[in-house]
Amino acid sequence: MPSPRAQVLIVDDQPENIEVLGETLADICEIGFALSGPEGLTQVAEHRPDLILLDVMMPDMNGYEVLEILQRDPNTREVPVIFVTARIDADSETRGIEAGAVDFIHKPINPQVVKARVSAHLERAQQRAALAELNQQLQDSLAQIKAAQSRLLVLSTAIEQSPLTVMVTDLDGHIEYVNPYFTQLTGYTFDEVHGRKPSMLKSGLTDPTIYRDLWIQLSQGQCWVGEIINRTKAGDTYVEETHIAPVVDAEGQRQHYVAIKLDITERKHAQQKLDHLAHYDILTNLPNRSLFLDRAERGLALAKRHDRPLALLFIDLDKFKPINDTWGHAVGDVVLQEVARRMQACVRESDTVSRVGGDEFVVLLLNLNTPADALMVAEKIRVALNEPMLIDDKTLSISSCIGVALYPEHGQTQMELSRHADAAMYQAKERGRDRVVLFDATMSSA
């Protein structure tokens, strides 16, 4: 958890949004706020925060314009900026990342996701600052080793006690020094690695072009920063954020290379969990609405390019509410999980089953041979959901109403297809439930 003294500035023209974010983050950092882009820039100039939560859509000056000004100023360029927006389209996120934002948080916010992401970025900023400071101190001290013996002694003590891996090699890459944390992390003692090359740590999982670029930059006298996947003596893999710099003498000649490396394995795992949480339903592990919309847009693009049919299925469960009311939500959750499993078993790996509401599901069928294939899959799902479920020694039964809309007959866009599949699903309800209904134009007029 980052230091409680970390400063986070929230820039949003809606006070209620600032209040929600402030309450969410109050226990991990100190909060400042601004109600417009210009006011936010003024506050940043007066007191540089550790992180900025920036709304995209604001009057007078939007978030992209604010970030552009921050990026032009060397004093604020390194302040991490997270966009907070209700827009979930891929183009907006791409534009934000290209502008320099480090992350995107969607409205309405998930407090756990917001707190975890802000904590991760604050921690990373603090670690980077500490890493950069130590790297600079190490380079300065090694270059002045003869004139600063006392300073070297202090620094060497810091390196020996550092929770970062420190390695010194000659110009050919042979290891001359490693600190104790290297042994703690990798399992190799100094005697085992002395005179050998760091390639002994290779896991085979790092792109070879990374090593090529690394040596090109070092041979040109430049520093290199990147991520490398290594392997311990016991065979476990780990990810390191690596900073390597050449050490030059008074004449500017390279003498050594110094590598300072931060183990970011846990951070990577945490980020993967956060990414999964942001795109998948917690209960069923199916893609959520956000991920489904993204796949639907991509699927439509492919269908248009290759002139192949595509189908959207809207599925609403019948008799689910009585199960919840009678047996409780715990049993209802197990029913939803079984429903998800059965629907996934009815489609191909290239198709997508998504949970978009309590007992509402959507299925995206790609690359169909004929439109009739969509009706066959829909009927297969309907029959599968009709099979009784044995849960906690109880035999439970549900059914489903399934509405089907086809591309290109029933719409050219995701919105049109969704609206028409939804209309067909409601027709299935009106016609007595437990059935599949294909959209037609009379439903649209109705």
From TrEMBL:
Keywords: Coiled coil, Nucleotidyltransferase, Phosphoprotein, Transferase
Residues in GGDEF domain copies: 308-441
Keyword Transferase (UniProt): yes
EC annotation from Swiss-Prot or TrEMBL: 2.7.7.65
Chain ranges of the PAS domain: 151-196
4-aspartylphosphate: residues bearing it: 55
UniProt keyword Nucleotidyltransferase, yes or no: yes
Domain of life where this protein originates: Bacteria
Classification via Gene3D superfamilies: 3.30.70.270, 3.40.50.2300, PAS domain
Record domain Response regulatory: where: 7-122
Coiled coil: 115-151
GO molecular function: diguanylate cyclase activity
CDD domains, per database record: GGDEF, PAS
Positions of the PAC domain: 222-276
Protein name, entry field: Diguanylate cyclase
Gene source species: Giesbergeria sinuosa
Phylogenetic lineage: Bacteria, Pseudomonadati, Pseudomonadota, Betaproteobacteria, Burkholderiales
